[in-house]
Design goal:
This protein is of the alpha+beta class. Helices cover about 40% and strands about 25% of the residues. It has one domain.
């Protein structure tokens, strides 16, 4: 009887351990899917700015989603994005970086953060 209790206890411990591993793996797989959605939300923010490619308007009133004081913009799938556009200057700094060899040289830095179900992904580009 005592051996049977030990065997059952060991089997329960093994099954609880395996179930914990499986549950954490399933959760991680779900977060990977959320990561992709968050990345595409960040990409949407960059694309919105690039529509105005030649001269992006740096006024936060024009881009209603491009400021810390404004809540992030929502997309139809439940994800959100927030974009920050800054002038890089004539040296191409985004804030720190390469020098510009040929005129006309003026860069803009775009940082977009996509959020979906507590997963954040960011994209930063310079053009």
């Amino acid at each position: 009887m005592i051996y049977a209790i030990f065997v059952v206890a060991i089997m329960l411990a093994i099954s609880f351990g395996i179930s914990e591993i499986l549950i954490s793996q399933v959760k991680m797989l779900g977060d990977m899917g959320h990561s992709v959605v968050a990345l595409y939300a960040a990409d949407s923010g960059v694309e919105k700015v690039l529509i105005d490619r030649q001269t992006p308007n740096l006024d936060s009133h024009y881009y209603s989603c491009y400021s810390l004081s404004v809540p992030p913009c929502s997309l139809d799938n439940g994800s959100t994005y927030q974009v920050f556009v800054t002038e890089g200057g004539s040296t191409g700094d985004c804030p720190g970086g390469e020098s510009c060899e040929e005129p006309p040289c003026f860069y803009y830095c775009i940082k977009s953060i996509g959020i979906y179900k507590d997963v954040k992904r960011a994209i930063e580009i310079k053009y």
